[in-house]
Amino acid sequence: MGTPELWDLVVRPVNAVQAAEIMLGISPSAARLLASALHATSPEADALLFAVPRMMRSLVIATTIAPERCHGEVRGPIQWGETMSARAANAGDPMVFVCASPGRAYDAPENRVLVAALESVRAAAAAVEVGRLKHRDTALFHHIRANGSQARRFLEHRSLNAIPRVKPQPRDLKRARSGTRRRNYGPALLVLDRVGEGFSGDDLELVADEATATEHDVVVEAVRHLRAAGHPIPGFRVRGGALVAGPLSYRHHRTRHPELPGGLAVDGMPVEAARPDEVAGALRAVGW
């Protein structure tokens, strides 16, 4: 359980890719790829894609009034100024009318939230489906491809395809969270919340090997021990390619920075503990 606990000790907001790189000993590109794969197949993404058909039946729809040129029929209040100009351009044809026609508009704050959530799933799947990865015949990759395709099809729906695929503004999120149809848009909000977090501790635990998980156990035990001894150890922040919390610093043993030592250190001195039960003795050995 050390990996989720260590992730919880990281102060937010945080660059999740950098933090994962440090904790797992992987490259930035691998961390970004991992984030995309986990997002595209996350429970939140699955729940959103399952819910979209129901959500589409309850979209927020605004009514807009737009001028429409008609011939021989009237489809709304006649705009006489525009009508006379249109007739003048058509040899005085008395059958030409310009009407204020009502129409449906789907570009509402709640729908922008839905589109942003679907786009995040589509983009995450597309980021994984590159190079030789697209030829991987695995359940994970089939899951990624299926979710990406489904998100893309939903975005092409006539009700959503004209809505800009942009990051929703705070007021859009607030409207989706507090509006009368907030329950309908809940799955989309959860996906966007996950985008902001990047990873969860459970995500990282899934990909941490045994040696990595043990390292994380050691770091968490060191924080517990020092706090119990009265030392005010804060949360970890990403600094200089390491997770730093007061006197503690941690880098995965497979650090990508050869000039910087991997493992746990206190005041720059290595804490030589291979298991959590060795932490107390290792800290005493360096004066803590």
Structure description:
With 288 residues, the protein is of the alpha+beta class. The chain folds into three domains: 2-27 and 203-285, no CATH class; 29-58 and 113-198, no CATH class; 62-105, no CATH class. It is 50% helix and 13% strand. It is built from twelve helices and seven strands. A five-stranded antiparallel beta sheet has the order 3-4-5-6-7, with helices on one face. The longest helix is centred in the middle third of the chain and has 20 residues, at 109-128. The chain is elongated, with a radius of gyration of 28 Å. The two termini are 25 Å apart. 35% of the residues are buried. The model has no long low-confidence stretch (mean pLDDT 89).
User: Taking strands numbered 1, 2, ... along the chain, how are they ordered across the largest sheet?
Assistant: 3-4-5-6-7
Largest sheet: 5 strands, antiparallel
Helical fraction? 40-55%
Outline type: elongated
Q: Stretches where pLDDT falls below 50 for ≥5 residues?
A: none
Descriptive terms for the model:
7 strands; 288 residues; five-stranded antiparallel sheet; two-stranded antiparallel ribbon; 3 domains; alpha+beta; elongated
Can you summarize this structure?
The protein folds into three domains: 109 residues, no CATH class; 116 residues, no CATH class; 44 residues, no CATH class. The strands form two sheets. It has a five-stranded antiparallel β-sheet, with helices on one face.
